Request: fold
Amino acid sequence: MPQAGLPKSTKKCAKRRLTPGEQRQSIGDSELHAIKQISVSGRSIKSNQEIFASSTQMKITTTLLVLALVGLAITTQSHAETRYVDQRYGPGGNGSTNAPYNTIQAAINTLFCDVVIVMPGTYSENLVINKHLKLYGYDGPHTTRVEGSNGGTNTITIASGFNVTIEGLNISSGRHGVSQPSLGTLRLRNCIFSSNQLSGTYIATDRYTWPVVCIYNCIYVANGSSGIFVHENNNYPYYSPDLNVLNTVFLRNGTYAIESDNMSPSSNFGGRIVHNYNDAVDNAQGQYSANFLALNPPGANSFSLTPEFVGGDTIACQDFRLLPSSPCKDTGDPGIGFLDPDGTRNDIGAYGGPGAQTFYTYPNDGPIVRSVTIDQGMVPKGSTFTIRATGAVR
Reply:
């Protein structure tokens, strides 16, 4: 029925609803439709010129908004970058796969870089991580080492307040292997800590601040003091870190597997400490310091048995893969999130768990093929073709 009081030409427009396609148009166009409807209803009558001016202004505003969002997307994307490190290359690289940096610190220092992948080699560096970062050894701890070049400095020092992940590296020869301050989050997985002057991993806590530290499938061997050392502020020995240690081997460290200096019975603030499915054996003064053990006994699935590494179980061992007879095989955390790359139960040590995907070997085999290419795309029946493979030699 015609609506009274409206010009004939506007009756259809007043009853018309927007189609789904029109409803999905940009904010500027939606606002323009609203203005047209309001002008028709008589609540805010505008001339054609005013409507044109308004729509033009909206289109300009919408265009600027779109450009701003595109710029934001580009900026956000540039904040997540991966850089590669390969010591076989000379200086002057840009961190790409074709021109990698030849030092790890150069990659860390790159603006916006938040992932660093380190190719096999021995890198004599003392690293400082002062950003959110993920640091990966591409081929695992068997071939990728970070050796502190200054024994009085930590091999890796992490600044306060950052989220850091370190995986697949052999970390040695520093004052501490990795030093974590009282504020931040640290995740260590599939790493080997060996021959550091003091501890493999140093963890600090303070009044009202404590870090979150997760250590999965690592090995601590022949460090000068303990594998893991927890330092609580002398004036405030009440705050423990939030610490989880699983599927890890502690062998022949200078004092303990895990030690705390100031932990007391009143250390019931801060985080929660859980350590289970670990093998701690032949550490010089016992497996755990008395004050740590009193408050944080090991889980029921931890044990003290010789791990049986391929390279032997002395401090001179350089090959920390497990022999088939090792008590550490298939005795780690059975949870689905800890399964080995072949789907079996977790192997305790640096060569078990899902983090070993790129370097998992069972148990002791030869080269691992990384890529395969065929030179000829098509070959006639009876002819020959060439297959090229690259890999890592064990």
Summary: The chain has a mean pLDDT of 81.
